[in-house]
Design goal:
Layout lengths: L2 H9 L5 E6 L9 H12 L4 E6 L4 H6 L7 E6 L2 E7 L4 H9 L2
Parallel strand pairs: 1-2
Antiparallel strand pairs: 1-3, 3-4
Helix pairs in contact: 2-4
Length: 100
């Protein structure tokens, strides 16, 4: 099974999946882990949060046209419901998850 297939399975559920596309060398990306932890504390089991390293998963990054990192996307039922490039605050992400 390739990376795209497992990623595809993950984002096809009815639960929102918050995806942080990042790179190890990206300074602003280092600001996202505590924000994502704060989001997880707020949403609990209502959403899944995953990180995708664009350098280790170039096929996924290309498939979703990720040109800058961090890029945050929220999927539900396999569809992109939200997309924002740059550092996004937990409250903003929670509002997006709550609307799904």
């Amino acid at each position: 099974m390739d990376g795209n297939q497992s990623f595809g399975n993950l984002i096809n559920g009815s639960k929102p999946v918050v995806v942080d596309f990042f790179a190890e060398w990206c300074g602003p990306c280092k600001m996202m882990p505590p924000i994502l932890k704060e989001l997880k504390d707020m949403v609990g089991d209502n959403a899944t949060i995953i990180k995708i390293d664009v350098d280790k998963n170039p096929n996924v990054a290309t498939a979703y046209n990720i040109q800058g990192v961090p890029t945050i996307m929220i999927f539900k039922n396999g569809k992109v419901m939200y997309r924002q490039s740059g550092v996004v605050q937990a409250k903003q992400l929670k509002m997006a998850v709550d609307q799904m």
